[in-house]
Specification:
Blueprint lengths: L1 H14 L12 H16 L3 H11 L9 H16 L3 E10 L2 E11 L3 E2 L23 E2 L4 E9 L5 H9 L8 E5 L7 H8 L4 E5 L2 H4 L21 E2 L37 E4 L1 H9 L21 E14 L2 E11 L4 E11 L7 H23 L6 E8 L2 H4 L1 H9 L1 H7 E7 L5 E7 L4 H9 L10 H13 L6 H11 L16 H6 L4 E8 L14 H7 L5 H19 L7 H41 L21 H26 L6 H12 L22 E3 L7 E3 L1 H8 L3 H30 L3
Parallel strand pairs: 4-8, 5-6, 6-7, 7-9, 12-13, 12-14, 14-16
Antiparallel strand pairs: 1-11, 2-3, 2-10, 5-10, 11-13, 15-16, 17-18
């Protein structure tokens, strides 16, 4: 059935091939020229070049502060200049602690010294090279602790509740958790909050090792000694240099002391392999771990409380290191003060072939192709800024410091930020500002999937339909399947954090997109390890670099269309429709929360009755959660309803202008595009979110307890989830007021579009 559907789609596309393209932001005549330009762009993309660049850039350890990290920046600088771009390297000095001393040993019931190393593997030419830092978690605390060991599953809030129900206290203990279930930085943060003195994070083979597939080098999955490095900074408060929150780490900038930096942890943290974790987990006694907590290691999982006792030592060199952002610019011919910024980072934890260089070489291919068009005489109307960021892995350092340093200019000029990071093969991943949803769909419909030969949009539609009808499908997947089944535009995801779009979207309010391909590659098992290498990528990632070219086409077409559009290609009705869904979700969250509290009350009442009826037991009122007060979502719902009306009026005015080929005075066009480019900023609040003022966007933010995962309408949603009722009502009103401001700006834009002549 799926194949038949794809064939029908392909046939329909072929029949429509001679029709003039319907291209958001362009008149019919301009759309034809734009399509021709994109075809010329595509012809310049050479997968052999992507392969060559990836091999060179991943040939040595590439972490922040390494010689090869700087060499890669200088290599790209030379390329950008040769391709005709005005390019330079912008350097920031940031706090970047590196390990001086690490040790982990099991003291009881039997001694074991953890190796804390990743040995070379057969067939991987770089896996034995020197120059890499040992496995570590950057921004964890220094410490030398000895304590009993407790297994806490994924180390998420519900896991600590389960331990408490079983009478297990982690105070004064070392907690061992497995990767997964939530962002790694939350694991030691929650361990610290619960009184633990240290935290170990290991990779269980159930999640990304032999349970998922053959380990490397036989297959692509994590080998026994593979270790996932990573940042554990509290980036939900703010990303970037921990010592310069909200402003660039430029020479002379005021820097906080280590004690003042809110995003640094206090307890030592260490990532370990499942080979090293095995003796520690086997040594645990105490209660049997719940069934859902048991991984795939060949022994019985226990929670601890004895007899396992461990010694953990972490000491770091807390100095500053330079990060090198490569910035390349092509000045716009008629609208030089409107910028389209395109970024990917170039630093890795070790070699970084998949993460991030597979995305970075796609960006380079775009830059070379655009440079070729430029040399042939084409000039973008708007300015293009291509950036290869440094320091993303430790905490979005390079992009955040650059965005904070240039914040005023970016808010005045930047109309779009386009991001990528890793890239594999399979299905298009697209997320971002929902006013860009139509643009993404139109671009994706014009890029052919290398494997199926249908558009990447239609392949994604089929994937959404299948994923949403699975028995274990999550609600979001089911909702996406319903939208995909309707045959129109596919929904794009909302962005949380974890890559370089954060400073642009969530701090500065610049409309943003994030792209990549995934789903059919086996890269997840070597994530952040020494084995993320060129040899692994060409076997288990994108062997012929066809999806690297596909990524360059998707991102490149978005950049080119936004650069040359007569009206910037945003459609605000898509944001309005998405917002309505978010408001519906909030209503459901309120209702589900109320039912949950009422259910707890019934259980407590039954428990109290049982105690009262048993004379042998002391009778006392059980502690109960207060009743849930009224949550006033009406202001938010009213604002969303008014916005829907304004979005319809805008679309009618836009359609009328488009029908007449955007025949308007140059100054009017400039006014309209300036307002369109600043619409996303109207969704921000200068005061930011509760407890984390750096995050100013009131619709998209990473969750405080989800890490990378997004929380939409976060001021309201997270307050409800945390039972902070007054805050929920306050942020419902604040968000409604912000939406009213957004609507007023949209109404002004509509008036400009309707203005005659």
């Amino acid at each position: 059935m799926l194949l038949a559907g794809l064939l029908v789609t392909t046939a329909a596309a072929a029949q429509a091939g001679d029709a003039k393209p319907d291209m958001l932001g362009f008149s019919a005549a301009s759309a034809v020229k734009q399509q021709e330009l994109e075809q010329r762009f595509d012809a310049q993309l050479d997968p052999a070049e992507l392969r060559e660049w990836l091999k060179q850039m991943s040939s040595q350890p590439n972490q922040v502060g390494s010689p090869h990290d700087k060499a890669n920046a200088e290599f790209m600088l030379g390329k950008f200049r040769a391709w005709g771009w005005d390019a330079h390297i912008e350097t920031f000095d940031v706090l970047y602690p590196t390990p001086k001393q690490e040790a982990l040993e099991l003291l009881a019931p039997a001694p074991y010294q953890a190796s804390l190393k990743e040995p070379p593997v057969d067939g991987d030419a770089t896996s034995g090279l020197d120059g890499a830092l040992p496995p570590y978690n950057v921004y964890g605390g220094d410490g030398d602790v000895t304590a009993e060991l407790i297994y806490a599953n994924y180390g998420m809030p519900d896991d600590y509740k389960e331990l408490a129900r079983r009478g297990i206290d982690v105070r004064g203990k070392i907690v061992i958790t497995r990767y997964g279930g939530g962002w790694r930085g939350l694991k030691p943060k929650l361990a610290q909050q619960h009184g633990a003195v240290g935290c170990l994070i290991y990779s269980d083979p159930r999640d990304d090792g032999y349970f998922a597939g053959d380990p490397y080098p036989q297959g692509g999955w994590r080998p026994p000694e593979g270790v996932q490095r990573g940042s554990v900074a509290d980036m939900q408060i703010y990303p970037g240099d921990p010592l310069t929150p909200g402003y660039g780490s430029t020479p002379g900038a005021k820097r906080l002391s280590l004690a003042e930096a809110q995003t640094l942890l206090k307890i030592p943290v260490l990532p370990i392999s499942y080979a090293d974790a095995t003796p520690f987990l086997k040594a645990l006694g105490g209660p049997l771990a719940p069934a859902s907590w048991r991984g795939a290691l060949p022994f019985t999982y226990h929670l601890g409380g004895g007899p396992a006792k461990a010694h953990l030592l972490v000491k770091s060199d807390w100095r500053q290191q330079p990060v090198y952002d490569v910035i390349a610019t092509l000045k716009g011919s008629t609208e030089p003060d409107q910028w389209i910024v395109r970024g990917n980072h170039h630093d890795g934890w070790v070699f970084g072939a998949w993460d991030p260089l597979a995305g970075n070489v796609a960006l380079m291919a775009e830059a070379k192709a655009i440079g070729s068009l430029y040399k042939q005489g084409w000039r973008p109307k708007r300015t293009l800024v291509y950036a290869s960021w440094d320091g993303e892995e430790p905490g979005l350092l390079g992009s955040t410091e650059w965005a904070e340093t240039h914040a005023k200019e970016l808010q005045d000029k930047a109309v779009l930020y386009v991001n990528s990071d890793t890239n594999g093969r399979g299905f298009l991943d697209a997320g971002g500002s929902h006013s860009l949803q139509r643009l993404v769909n139109q671009v994706a419909d014009g890029v052919i999937d290398p494997e199926t030969r249908v558009s990447v949009r239609e392949r994604l539609r089929a994937h959404m339909l299948i994923a949403g009808t699975a028995k274990d499908a999550k609600p979001e997947a089911r909702d996406n399947a319903k939208l995909a089944e309707q045959g129109g535009d596919l929904p794009i995801g909302a962005l949380g954090s974890g890559s370089d779009y954060s400073a642009f979207l969530e701090h500065l309010g610049i409309a943003s997109l994030d792209f990549g391909f995934s789903g059919e590659d086996d890269n997840g098992g070597i994530y952040h390890s020494r084995y993320d290498s060129f040899d692994h990528y060409v076997r288990f990632g994108d062997p012929d670099f066809a999806y690297g070219v596909a990524l360059a086409k998707v991102a490149g077409h978005v950049v080119l269309r936004t650069a040359d559009a007569e009206a910037l290609p945003l459609r605000f009705g898509d944001f309005s429709d998405t917002l309505n869904r978010y408001v519906d979700e909030l209503h459901k969250l309120v209702e589900d929360t109320r039912k949950d509290i009422e259910r707890q009350h019934r259980l407590l009442d039954q428990h109290a009755y049982t105690l009262a009826s048993d004379p042998a037991r002391p009778v006392g009122p059980p502690e109960r959660e207060p009743d849930m007060p009224a949550i006033e979502l009406a202001p938010l719902e009213h604002s969303a309803k008014l916005l829907a009306q304004s979005a319809q009026a805008y679309q009618a005015a836009y359609d009328a202008r488009a029908a007449h080929g955007f025949a308007w005075p140059a100054e009017r066009a400039r006014q309209v595009n300036r307002m369109i480019g600043r619409m996303e900023q109207a969704l921000t609040d200068p005061a930011g979110l509760p407890g984390r003022a750096w995050f100013k966007h009131l619709i998209y933010a990473p969750g405080m307890l989800t890490g990378y995962g997004v929380k939409t309408v976060p001021g309201v949603r997270e307050a409800i989830e945390a039972r902070r009722w007054d805050e929920a009502n306050r942020y419902a009103a604040i968000t409604a007021k912000t939406l009213d401001g957004y609507r007023n700006q949209l109404d002004q834009l509509t008036a400009l579009l309707n203005k005659q002549p």
